[in-house]
Specification:
Helix 4 links the parallel strand 3 (101-104) and strand 4 (122-125). This protein has a single domain (4-181), classed as Aconitase, domain 4. Helices cover 24% and strands 18% of the residues. The protein has helices at residues 18-21, 34-42, 89-96, 109-118, 167-172, 175-181, and strands at residues 4-11, 72-76, 101-104, 122-125, 139-143, 148-151, 157-159. The two termini are 21 Å apart.
């Protein structure tokens, strides 16, 4: 796992559900076929209402044109991120789109566990409502070892909650990799 993750922030509001992260009609693609897998990235966050896509202003697409990779590698959400249907395709689609970390004030438990167990994205929590403090397009840096987010656009620094017990799973790249490298399987 990278010790520092630097990239542009993409900011969303509260209650971003898994249907907004990856709409149900796009759950038909094979994750084993590299070309079909790209479609998960292409459709990531495609059902977020336009006015709430890329806060604070809205109207900023996460994926441009026919791309499957986003220019935004860090997603900032509010409360209850990943609520709704249980689908591991939600964090998978963000990973395919190039997201490395999601930072939210709180998560739906199933999204959080799918992110950790699948090794798709790093789910950090913040005591502060960072989606009110960071803007889409801000250049941010996550220091994983220090649980610190620096906004290089405005110079502000935010302390994040430590990953705790899931750190080793995340660092290994997911639950199966953790089990393999620790001799469990």
């Amino acid at each position: 796992m990278e010790k520092k993750i630097i990239g542009k922030a993409y900011v969303l509001g509260d209650n971003i559900d898994t249907d907004q992260i990856i709409p149900a009609e796009h759950l038909v693609y094979s994750t084993n076929d590299p070309e079909e897998l790209k479609k998960y990235g292409h459709y990531a966050l495609s059902s977020v209402p336009v006015e709430k896509a890329g806060l604070p202003d809205g109207g900023i697409p996460f994926i441009k044109g026919d791309d499957h990779k986003s220019e935004y590698s860090i997603v900032i959400g509010g409360t209850n991120f990943g609520c709704g249907s249980s689908r591991e395709h939600a964090p998978l689609s963000l990973q395919v789109a190039g997201v490395k970390v999601v930072i939210a004030q709180s998560y739906a438990r199933i999204f959080y566990r799918n992110s950790v167990d699948g090794g798709f994205v790093i789910p950090y929590e913040s005591q502060l409502k960072l989606n009110d403090k960071i803007k889409t397009g801000d250049q941010v840096e996550l220091n994983v070892e220090e649980n610190r987010l620096t906004n290089h656009t405005d110079g502000k620094i935010y302390q994040l909650n430590p990953l705790g017990d899931v750190f080793e799973i995340v660092a290994a790249g997911g639950l199966f990799e953790f089990a393999r490298t620790s001799g469990m399987i």
